[in-house]
Amino acid sequence: MSPRWEPDPDIRRGNHVIYHLHVHLVFVTKYRRGVFDDEMLTRCEAIMRDVCQSFEAELREFNGEGDHVHLLVHYPPKVALSKLVNSLKGVSSRYLRAEYTGRINRIGTGSVLWSPSYFAGSCGGAPLSIVKEYIENQKRPV
To answer: 38-54 and 81-99 are packed helices; what angle lies between their axes, rounded to 10 degrees?
Structure first.
């Protein structure tokens, strides 16, 4: 009997697509103010998990410090990354400012929690040099 093939849980399927998309996101607080403590980071993670689920994405990893958070998100190709980011930042800001009003206002960020910018880096799979080499080797013989 041949060994049973186990599908890779990171490779997902849709109606007309097979995908494996991960992004590393970093959000920084306004003016890099040290806003977060452990309790707020835990709540921020829960909020961001809910937002990801609403996009049919999965928050794989989350961590942060006083002035920024890191996320590793596995997302489907139908999701526009900018829309996911806007929702993650907007929803988390709204909930956290409502739930931790005193703390956030004392820090001096006003009615804004996040800096308008963010970092997004693609990750997972083979290094770019390997992918480039693979594509170069797909040339048709002349």
So the answer is: 140
